[in-house]
Amino acid sequence: MSRAAFWQGFRDCSPFIAVVVPFSMLFGVVARDAGLDLLQVMAMSVLVIAGASQFTALALLQEHAPVFVALLAALAVNLRMALYSAALVPHLGHAPLWQRALMAYLMVDQAYAVANKTFEERPEMSRADKVAYYFGVMVLICPFWYGCTFLGALIGTAIPPELSLDFAAPVCFIALTAPLLRSLAHVVAAGVSVICAVLFAAFPAGLGLIAAAIVAMLVGAQVELFLNRRRERLA
Amino acid sequence: MISDAAFWTLTALLGIGTFLIRFSFLGFLGRRQLPDWVLLHLRYVGVGVLPAMVTPLVLWPAATGGETDPARLVAALATFVAALRVSVTMALVAGMGTLYLMQFLLS
User: Which residues cross the membrane (chain A) (predicted)?
Assistant: First the structure.
């Protein structure tokens, strides 16, 4: 593993600590409010590490939905990660199986977005550097995720709702998206993603998201092909 | 109140299921070369997924019971502009800062 690449990943991901802290604390607070004990809160955060799906599952259990309904809804929210997993294959697929298993466990939105952006911008990166970079990104996020869930669960309702910690999630995703808009095709795909999210809002949790993502990917790819053909004609 | 049995069943299965989703392609395809048309579409995973995650959170926040909140709309816009023009760090500051400012002004 390359030390320089590891620390580069560490630095590139460090700003996102500012959103992981409030978001994971919020999960701790909400989970305690729902009646979970400290062990249960921590077990969920460590076993699942996927905030959005944890909130979904908890909310449904609180409403006395059957366990399998809560499970399916939460898994649907996480289905997007299958797309991340596929997108990382060309960059990280060469790593040994145990490393890929560890990468899979650590695959959160920030890890995918930060690492994939760097891999695409710097195709000259060696395979070993890409692996080191990915772990550098996550080694920082992970302890904060565990630690601040614990803190939130301890402090509990002492955190006033006026702080609007929930808004840390959209702020984080917006900050992850903006740097990805590096071509017209990417901008169009992002626009389609927003429009489809509104159109598919009535779909069950998570499924609207996947449908919107797939339509946006198809449109983005077609726009790229169209622009390439036009460039060739003009050249 | 959530029963212990319901909680542990859900958490164990969600943990396993989520891991398998994450492991899927990276784990089972490994070093296999993906065809060009797949790679083409995979370039748009980020811009396909993230905006669709953000949109409902901004338009219909759970914290307001799903009511559209002008303060959050303005704050989301400020985050986006700062992320495009300045830096990730400034985007995060601008996002939460604008939200607090708007909530103060509108209250």
Answer: 12-32, 38-61, 68-89, 131-157, 163-180, 209-227
Minimal Cα–Cα distance from A149 to chain B, Å?
16
B50/B68 same-domain check: yes
Q: Which residues of B touch A103 (CB under 8 A)?
A: 26
Q: Which of A51-60, A90-99, A117-126, A181-190 has the lowest mean pLDDT?
A: A51-60
Q: Residues B73, B90: one domain?
A: yes
Whether residue B14 and residue A47 make contact (CB cut-off 8 A), yes or no, is yes
Does B10 share its domain with B52? Answer: no
**Is B69 in the same domain as B83?**
yes
Reported as a single tens digit per residue, the pLDDT across A3-42 is 999 999 999 999 888 888 888 988 998 898 888 999 999 9
Phi–psi pair at B7, nearest 5 degrees = -60, -50
Asked if B1 and B43 sit in the same domain, the reply is: no
The range of the structural domain enclosing residue B26 comes to 1-32
Q: What are phi and psi of A123, to 5 degrees?
A: -65, -15
Contact A116, A86 (CB under 8 A): no
Q: Does residue B17 share a domain with residue B65?
A: no
Q: Percentage of chain A with pLDDT > 70?
A: 99
Interface check B42 vs A, CB under 8 A = yes
Does B40 share its domain with B92?
yes
**Out of A36, A191, A221, closest to residue B40 by CB:** A221
Note whether A83 contacts B17, CB cutoff 8 Å. Answer: no
Asked whether the beta carbons of B49 and A211 are under 8 A apart, the reply is no
Answer whether B52 sits within 8 Å of A43, measured CB to CB. Answer: no
Same domain, B21 and B47: no
B38-59 pLDDT, tens digit per residue, is 989 999 999 999 999 899 999 9
State the DSSP code for A153: H
Measured CA to CA, the distance from residue B18 to residue A145 in angstroms comes to 17
Chain B residues with CB-CB distance to A79 below 8 A? 21
Q: Report ipTM (2 d.p.).
A: 0.90
Q: Is the separation of the CB atoms in A219 and B77 below 8 Å?
A: no
Closest CA to A84 of A102, A56, A108: A108
